[in-house]
C-alpha cells in the first residue's frame, strides 16, 4: 500500500457495519478506493457477514496481524484486532466482548492516525451501551477521539452535497439547551468550523450562517433574549477575528437559503434544529464529520440498523459518502 491508508473501522460486530463493507466491496463500490482502504476489525465476523450475498468470503491471513478478505474476485486488507466467535453472535445483541472489540478498532485507528501512519479514519456505527458494558468510559466515538487526541472541544458536522450543519450543543435534553449556550461556546464553534473548512475542505473564506435559538430570531426580545445577549456578541467577536459569520437568522427560513447554496455551513444551536433539515435532504447519504481534531475522521450518519442485519438490504450510500469525504479532506489537509 503505497499511500497512507484510510482506516475503515468495522463498528459493532452485531451491527450493520460488516455487512455494509462487504456489500460495497461485492458491488465494486469500493474499487475507486481499493489502494487506500484498510479495515480494522474481525476477520471471522466479516467473513460471516457475506451470508446474505450468496458468495462465501474467505480470509487469507498474513503474518503481521493483517490479511486479505476475498469476496468473489475483489479483496480488502484487514487488520485483525479481535477474534470473536462469529457463529455465536446474534444481530443486535452485542455483549461486553463486542463492546471491547469495537472500542479496540477505534483506538487502533486513532493511534495510527496520530503516529502519521494513516491518512485518516472512517467509522462504522457502534453500540454505546455495549461499550459502556465493556467498561469503556466514553459515551461514543466523538468523546473517545477527543480524549485520545488531547482536544477539549470538537464540533459535530453533518454534511451532504446541499447542506452542511454544525452543532453548538449535541446530545442533551432540549430544556437544557439555553443554559448551555454561551458567547464563548458559540465563538469556539465558529472558530473550529472556519478553520476546518479552510484547512480540510479547501475553502478560502467559508461563509457561515448562524441560526437563532428562538422563533423569528427572538423578535427583538419578544420571544427570548438569547440572540441579543449571547449569539450577537459571539458573531461580532468572530467577525472581528476575520470569520465570515452572519446572523442570527430565523431558523424557519435559513435552511431554504442554505440548501440553495447561499452559505457553506449552518451553525445550529441544538441537535434537532440542524438534523431535521439535514436528514430531510440527505437521509441516505449524509456524513458525520468530527471537526477540531488533529486527524481526519468521518463516519456514516446512521446507527447500527439491527433490523437490517442479515437481509442484504442496507444502503451503502452513507458509507461511500463518508469514504469520499475523508478522501477529499486528506487531499486538502
Describe, in plain words, how this protein is organized in 3D.
This protein has 333 residues and is α/β, with parallel strands linked by helices. The chain contains 11 helices and 13 strands. Strand 1 (6-9), helix 1 and strand 2 (37-41) form a beta-alpha-beta unit. Helix 3 (96-114) packs across helix 5 and helix 7 (183-201) packs across helix 8. The protein is elongated. The mean pLDDT is 94.
Structural class: alpha/beta
Beta percentage is 15-25%
What is the H-and-E element order? EHEHEEEHEHHEEHHEHEHEHEEH
Note the overall shape.
elongated
Task: Write down the domain tally.
Answer: 2
Low-confidence stretches: none
Largest sheet: 13 strands, mixed
Helix content: 25-40%
Q: Mean pLDDT score, rounded?
A: 94
Q: Nutshell version of this structure?
A:
The protein is of the alpha/beta class and 333 residues long. Helix content is 37%, strand content 19%.
Amino acid at each position: 500500500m503505497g499511500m497512507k491508508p484510510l482506516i475503515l473501522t468495522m463498528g459493532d460486530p452485531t451491527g450493520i457495519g460488516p455487512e455494509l463493507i462487504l456489500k460495497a466491496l461485492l458491488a465494486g463500490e469500493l474499487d475507486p478506493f481499493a489502494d487506500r482502504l484498510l479495515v480494522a476489525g474481525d476477520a471471522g465476523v466479516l467473513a460471516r457477514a457475506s451470508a446474505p450475498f450468496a458468495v462465501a468470503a474467505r480470509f487469507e491471513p498474513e503474518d503481521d496481524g493483517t490479511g486479505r478478505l476475498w469476496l468473489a474476485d475483489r479483496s480488502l486488507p484487514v487488520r485483525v484486532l479481535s477474534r470473536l466467535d462469529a457463529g455465536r453472535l446474534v444481530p443486535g445483541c452485542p455483549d461486553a466482548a463486542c463492546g471491547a472489540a469495537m472500542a479496540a478498532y477505534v483506538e487502533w485507528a486513532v493511534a495510527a492516525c496520530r503516529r502519521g501512519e494513516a491518512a485518516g479514519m472512517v467509522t462504522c456505527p457502534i453500540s454505546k451501551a455495549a461499550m459502556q458494558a465493556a467498561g469503556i468510559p466514553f459515551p461514543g466515538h466523538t468523546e473517545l477521539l477527543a480524549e485520545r487526541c488531547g482536544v477539549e472541544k470538537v464540533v459535530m458536522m453533518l454534511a451532504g452535497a446541499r447542506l452542511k450543519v454544525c452543532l453548538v450543543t449535541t446530545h442533551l435534553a432540549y430544556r437544557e439547551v439555553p443554559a448551555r449556550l454561551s458567547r464563548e461556546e458559540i465563538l469556539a464553534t465558529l472558530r473550529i468550523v472556519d478553520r476546518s473548512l479552510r484547512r480540510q475542505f479547501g475553502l478560502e473564506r467559508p461563509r457561515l450562517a448562524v441560526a437563532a435559538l428562538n422563533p423569528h430570531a427572538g423578535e427583538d426580545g419578544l420571544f427570548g433574549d438569547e440572540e441579543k445577549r449571547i449569539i450577537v456578541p459571539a458573531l461580532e467577536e468572530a467577525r472581528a477575528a476575520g470569520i465570515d459569520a452572519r446572523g442570527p437568522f430565523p431558523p424557519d427560513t435559513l435552511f431554504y437559503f442554505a440548501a440553495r447554496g447561499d452559505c457553506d455551513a449552518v451553525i445550529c444551536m441544538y441537535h434537532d434544529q440542524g438534523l431535521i433539515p439535514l436528514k430531510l435532504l440527505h437521509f441516505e447519504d449524509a456524513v458525520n464529520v468530527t471537526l477540531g481534531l488533529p486527524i481526519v475522521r468521518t463516519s456514516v450518519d446512521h446507527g447500527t440498523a439491527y433490523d437490517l442485519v442479515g437481509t442484504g438490504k442496507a444502503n451503502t450510500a452513507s458509507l461511500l459518502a463518508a469514504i469520499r469525504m475523508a478522501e477529499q479532506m486528506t487531499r486538502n489537509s
